[in-house]
Structure formats: structure tokens, C-alpha cells
Amino acid sequence: MDADNNTIYAETEMHSLAPTFQLYEISISCCGDVGSFPQFLYHQHDLRHVDLSSINLKGEFPNWLLENNTNLYELVLSNNSFLGPFQLPSLSHTALSQLDISKNSFYGNIPNEIGAKLPSLWFLNMSKNIFGGSIPVSIGDMNSLRTLDLSNNKLTGGLPEHLAMGCSLLSVLILSNNRLQGSMFSSNFNLINLRELQLDRNLFSGRIPDCLSNCTFLTTLDLSDNQLFGDIPRWMGNMSSLEEIVMANNHLEGPIPKEFCQLNLNLKLLDLSVNSISGSLPSCFSPLWISQVHLSRNKLQGPLTDAFRNSTILVTLDLSNNRLTRSIPNWIGRLSQLSYLLLNNNHFEGEIPVQLCKLGQLSLIDLSNNKLSGTIPPCLKITTLNDVSQEYVRYVAAVAQAPSSFSPDEPIEFTTKNISYSYKGRVLTLLSGIDLSCNKLTGEIPHEVKDFRKIIALNLSHNSLTGPIPPAVSELKQIESLDLSHNNLSGKIPSQLVGLTYLSSFSVAYNNLSGSTPERTAQFATFEEGSYLGNRFLCGPPLPNNCSTDGPSSLTPTASTDNGSIDMNVFYVSFVVSYVMVLLSIAIVLYINPYWRRAWFHHIEAGITSCYYFVEDNILPKRFHCGNM
């Protein structure tokens, strides 16, 4: 019986009516809100395959299904509303090979005898419940087990050594998001067939165990969000099958081993962010198929050199919050699929490379808090997934929904509205922004800014930009955060900005702007005085100084005083000019009139004689007198 993805309406109250049929298989997953358990199943005794997932079944675990159907080999009850403890059959069930009770509300401990009662399981998924206590040692008796998922529960204690020795065929082990602690594995380790290991979001401590070097088939390794310390093992570079390495949010230190260059053929995702990794990036490390690189919040230093030079399908490159130096390399223009470029909070210098203009898929660029100089390239392009081809949309969606359960959750930090937010998953496909703040950029804001039509955030603050605010900014109809503060911008604020209806954060503070503030309508009615501070010749609400009756144009930067203060530049120029004019006038008069010229020199000679006798009579005797003492 197969009714997947259909809606079933059935009366199940007549318990005494036994059906005249016996089913081998029943699958009614995703068939709406069935609620109560189908009663006719009580009379089935030869079921082999049962899939009752995603139909909102309630009540306790139906262990009678196992007791009544000794030939049942697959039972899927995931994504329902079961609650209570997980109950095993009274006798051992040797036929059951697949059990999935994930995404329910089962609680209590996992029964200690689960390995003895269900010895033939090769697939066991009990994730996303409320199980507590420790992992039963008897799971190590499941010699056929290949997939074990106990993630997203409240399990405590450590990993049973018997599990690591007995389940030698295990290829997928997922224990994420529990409260497991202690060392991950001891030297007694026999899980050499592992292909996917996810132990993230626990309390594991110690070093990365060397026994994992025996897992030569490992493709996915996630040890993030634990308390691991020590260096990244060099043997990890010899695991040529690795496609995804995620070890973020630990206490790892030391350099990225040069042996990682041996992963260039298969590696697709690397996340070592929020550790204490130091040293420079190996120049030979440039995986061909990597799509996501997250190395933020470490202590990496030195130039980028050729690292990632050949990673031409990179979608995300996050090297923010490190100590990287020198210029941003020109080869970055070769990364044609790059959507998210975060190099902020480093020590990069030089100009923004014009090669960035070749990145037609760029949605988010953050180069803030560096030492970049020069002008903003007018050819810079920023887009969103709404503007690119459907082929590229499918490509990014495939990256975000990769088979690994953690790929969509790799976060990206970006500052908007003066707050640093963490974005991840599908939200990233909608995010578009530029942050070039806290650099040494000069020149004018390019008029080509109008091409950033669907940008959400633009931050050019704390630079040395000059010239007017281009009216083209008013064409950024989707913008929510605009920060042009702490520059040398001049002229008036374009009145067209009031048309930016989504704008919720705005600042042009500490510039040389003049004229009146924008009309207090729509979003601009919410911006306070702090958005306009530090502009001497700016007037109008919410600033305390009102514009004059002659209009704001009467308040210009050429005024010599402001509230009684003196323009010192004008004062110095006027003083020097006046002094020179007086000296020239005296010289001309003395040259023309001989009588005044003789009188002038007579007075000068008399003054010199008077000074001479004054010094001789009053200063020299006292000096000799002090010397004799």
C-alpha cells in the first residue's frame, strides 16, 4: 500500500473489525494530519516495510509493530509527534535492519539493551528528540551498523570505547549538538570505514586524535564548536578523500600544514574560523573544487601570495579578522564565481584592485578596517541572485544544499546598521552589500554607484572621500543602511534621498556638507541629530541651528564667523598682507622725501646711542659684580 504525498481520510475507531488482508508494505508518508495510529495495523503480522513519516502521529512508540511483525526489516516513523520513552520489543528482533524515529519528542534514556534487542540494525536514526543519559555501550554489539545518527538530543558522557571497536563497518557517525565530553577517541579505535564524522557542538576536549588518520575513506569531518586545542595534525593532509573540513570555534593553534596542499583535488569546504591559527597561508594551497573558505577570526599573517589562485569556483572567501598584509592580489579577478568576499579587519594596503570589476557574481564585499588607499573603482559591480542567470542560481543553491548537513549553516558576518550580523543559509542569497569603511580612500564617490540598484547596505565611512554626494545614490531603492560619515564630502545632501523608503540607518556626520537637511518625511523623519553632526554649515531639523529666512544657501563655508568665532586662515592672510603694505609705504615715503629720510636716520642713530649707554651703565657693572663673587 503506497499513498505517499496524498491526503487520507479514514475512520479508525472500529477496533473489533479485523481486516481480511495482510500487507507486506505500507507507506503513507506526507499524507496530511492523520493524527491517530491506523488501527488496522494491529491486525497485520507479516509487514516488511512500514513508512508512516510526516503524518503527525501521536502517542507512544508502537513497539507492538515489532512484536507482531517479526519479519519487519524497515520502520520509518520520523517527523511525527510521538512522545514518551523509546520502548523495545520484549524479544530480540533479528530482522529489523533500518529504524528511523527522528524528529519526534521521545525522551528518557536510550535503552541499554538496544544492541541486544536490535542486533541486525545497519541504519539507526534517533536524532532530533529529547533523549538524555549516556550512549549505550551495547550499540557496539551492532556489528552490521553502518549509519548512526543520535544528533540534536541531550546525551551526556563520552563516546563508548566499545562502539569505536565493535562497529567496524560504520561509515556515518553523527553525534552533533549534544552534551558529550571528554576525549573523542582513545587508541582503541576500529572505525576505519568512516566516511562521514560529525561530532560538532559538544564539549569534547583535548587534541584531535591521531587514530582518525586511519580513516582513509573519510570525506566529511566536522569537529566544530568543541574545546579542542593543539596544532592541526599534519596527517590530515594525507587524507586525500576529504571533501569537507569544519573545525571552527575551538582553540586550535599553529599554522595550516603545508600537507593541506595535497587536498587540492577533492576539498570543497574548509572552515577553521574562530581559532588561534597563525602563520601564513601555504602558497601551494589552492583546491580546484573548493566553494567555501572560512578562515576568519584567527591570527593568520603575511600576504595572500598564490593561495586560492586556482580555486576558480569559489563562492565564499572569508579571511576577515586576521593579520594579513600587503596588497589584495590581482589574481582575485580570476575567481569568476565569487559571491561573498570578506577581507575586513586585516592590514591590507595599496589600492582596491580593478580586477574586482571582473567578478560579475559578487553580492557582498567587505574590505573595511584595512589600510587601503586610492579611489573607489567606478567599474565595481555588485549584484544579487535576482540579477544573474538561472544557471548560476541553481549552482549557488546546490552549494547551499550540499549533502552535508552543516553546509548551509556556515555563517558570514557583515555589518549593517552599525551592528555586526551573522548571515547563513538561504538568507545569503538575498544579501547584497559593500563595506569599504575605515580605510584611506580618496577621491569622489563614483556616479556609477547607481548600478548597485539592489544593494542593501553601503558603508564608505571613515575615509578621506571628497566631492558631493552623487544624486545617483537615490537610485538605490532597496538600500537599508547608508553610512557616508567621517569623510570630507561637501555640497548639499541630495533631496532625492527621501525616496529611499527602505532606509533605516543613515549617517553623513562629520563631513563638510552645507545647506538644509532632507525633508522630514517617510524614513527621514526617524533620523536623529547624530546622523548629521559635525557639518558646520548644515542646518534644519533635527539640528538645533535653523536655516535663515534667505534660504540655506546663505550659510556657506565662505562665512568668516560662526557664533562669534574667527576664521583663523582669513586672519593670518590679512595680517601678513597689512604688515607688508605698511613696510612698503614707509620705504616709498623715505625714498621720495630727503628731509624725512634724514630725520628717520637721525632718530635711528639716537636710539642706538641711547641703547648703548643704557647697557653700559646698567647691565655690564652688575654682570662683573656677580662674577667677582
TrEMBL record:
Pfam families: LRR_1, LRR_8
Membrane association type: Single-pass type I membrane protein
Subcellular compartments: Cell membrane
GO cellular-component term (any): plasma membrane
TM spans (from-to): 570-592
This protein's UniProt keywords: Cell membrane, Glycoprotein, Leucine-rich repeat, Membrane, Receptor, Repeat, Signal, Transmembrane, Transmembrane helix
PANTHER family to which the protein is assigned, alphabetical: RECEPTOR-LIKE PROTEIN 12, RECEPTOR-LIKE PROTEIN 14
Family per similarity comment: Belongs to the RLP family.
Protein's name in the database: LRR receptor-like serine/threonine-protein kinase FLS2
Organism per entry: Durio zibethinus (Durian)
